[in-house]
Amino acid sequence: MATHLKAGDKAPSFSAPDQNGNKVALSDFKGQKVVLYFYPADDTPVCTVQSCNLRDNYSLLKQHGYQVIGISPDDVASHKKFGEKFSLPFPLLADPKRSIIEKYGVWGEKNMYGNTVIGLHRTTFVIDEKGVIAKIFLRPRNKQHAEEILKSA
């Protein structure tokens, strides 16, 4: 299952607490480009690789006008620990009730190690300055994620 959204669609609005308990909304970034990446869980191997790639290339992404926001079903405390452990400089939004995750259509059946499970599909949405989805990465290249985002611009 892939998201029901496509490039050209208006990005669904949202607001949720980040790892510091601050409320962050998509509308806070009006007029800016946003890299909105959904990842399954804090401090797991692939999610850490992806988050650290975005961290390592954060200044380059910002130079190109991108703001980065991560979202997972983990809670604020988990995000705080993960963000501090890996010095992540961008907001990690807590969505334990999966309201944003469901709006973006990234929750559902997936295959993991040969088993069908229900969970979050690692997906990145690049949103333009007008709040429109410019690009969707259904299978981000986690070790080169920032590079593929910049190449798609």
TrEMBL record:
Catalytic activity reported: a hydroperoxide + [thioredoxin]-dithiol = an alcohol + [thioredoxin]-disulfide + H2O
GO molecular function: thioredoxin peroxidase activity
Entry's Gene Ontology BP terms: cell redox homeostasis; cellular response to oxidative stress
EC number: 1.11.1.24
Enzyme class: oxidoreductase
Limits of the Thioredoxin domain: 5-153
One Pfam assignment: AhpC-TSA
CDD domains: PRX_BCP
PROSITE patterns xref list: THIOREDOXIN_2 (PS51352)
Active-site residues from the entry: C47 (cysteine sulfenic acid (-soh) intermediate)
Function of the molecule: Thiol-specific peroxidase that catalyzes the reduction of hydrogen peroxide and organic hydroperoxides to water and alcohols, respectively. Plays a role in cell protection against oxidative stress by detoxifying peroxides and as sensor of hydrogen peroxide-mediated signaling events.
Stated family: Belongs to the peroxiredoxin family. BCP/PrxQ subfamily.
Protein known as: thioredoxin-dependent peroxiredoxin
